[in-house]
Amino acid sequence: GAVVSQHPSRVICKSGTSVKIECRSLDFQATTMFWYRQFPKQSLMLMATSNEGSKATYEQGVEKDKFLINHASLTLSTLTVTSAHPEDSSFYICSARLADNEQFFGPGTRLTVL
Amino acid sequence: GQNIDQPTEMTATEGAIVQINCTYQTSGFNGLFWYQQHAGEAPTFLSYNVLDGLEEKGRFSSFLSRSKGYSYLLLKELQMKDSASYLCAVMDSNYQLIWGAGTKLIIKP
């Protein structure tokens, strides 16, 4: 299957700092990527849909000025958590959708904000 | 509203067969996915059904009935490594995945 990578896999930061998470499709071009957040023992929550070359579409309740998404190329989308706070600590997962609607996930990034 | 229902937790014995059900009500339908997720890891793709019927892939099979809004994931010859959460997700008319809360499967020796 298609491979999606994320970097970093784990990050610990101080409150108030910004963190950038990269999501790459390694062997295919993805016009659409998705960013999810998952709190412990809860289901995946879609944060935003990222389309190459255009602004991301955010789900209700997700602050677009806090979670900046850039999808500059067909193989790379980035999520920047700005001015992170402890409540932003979570597991952030990206996915990329193929033309046949299959969706492949990156390994996830565990963010801990102290 | 959109809704995906699956059992919260199931227990099965190593070597046995288990069926995890999923019912859905969504605005439009563009396919149903099953994912496996081990604790602390991202989901991994198991199956995709868009037409009615049974899709078999090794020890795992997935069934879909669009008229009933129903799917199941069948796991045969259970192994201890199959202990995980199994997520059912439906792609709606906007091509977005609507997620169930997941079924935690516990395999006992």
Word description of this protein:
Chain A has no helices and 11 strands. Chain A starts with a strand and ends with a strand. In chain A, the strands form 2 sheets. In chain A, strands 2, 4, 5, 6, 9, 10 and 11 form a 7-stranded mixed sheet that branches. In chain A, strands 1-3-8-7 form a 4-stranded antiparallel sheet, with no helix packed on it. Chain A is an all-beta fold. Chain B has 109 residues and is an all-beta fold. Chain B is built from no helices and 11 strands. In chain B, strands 2, 4, 5, 9, 10 and 11 form a 6-stranded mixed sheet that branches. In chain B, a hairpin with a 6-residue loop joins strand 4 and strand 5. Chain B is globular, with a radius of gyration of 13 Å. The mean pLDDT of chain B is 93. Classes of the chains: A mainly beta (114), B mainly beta (109). Chains A and B meet through strand 9 and strand 10 of A and strand 5 of B.
Tell me briefly what this model is.
With 114 residues, chain A is mainly beta. Helix content of chain A is 0%, strand content 53%.
Which terms would index this structure?
heterodimer; A: mainly beta; 7-stranded mixed sheet; 4-stranded antiparallel sheet; B: 109 residues; mainly beta; 6-stranded mixed sheet
Note the gap between the termini of chain B.
Answer: 40 Å
Number of strands of chain B: 11
- Main pleated-sheet profile of chain B: 6 strands, mixed
- Helix-strand topology string of chain A: EEEEEEEEEEE
Give the largest interface.
Answer: A-B, 20 and 21 residues
Report the β-strand fraction of chain A as a percent range: over 45%
- Taken from the alpha-carbon principal axes, the silhouette of chain B is globular
Radius of gyration of chain A: 13 Å
Alpha-carbon distance between the termini of chain A?
36 Å
Oligomer: heterodimer
User: Can you give the mean pLDDT of chain B?
Assistant: 93
By secondary-structure content and strand pairing, the structural class of chain A works out as mainly beta
Mean pLDDT of chain A: 89
The gross shape of chain A turns out to be globular
What are the segments of chain B in which pLDDT stays under 50 over at least 5 consecutive residues? none
Q: Please trace the helix and strand order of chain B, writing H or E for each element.
A: EEEEEEEEEEE
Helix proportion range of chain B: under 10%
- Sheet-strand content of chain B, in percent, reads over 45%
Radius of gyration computed on alpha carbons of chain B:
13 Å
The main pleated sheet of chain A reads as:
7 strands, mixed
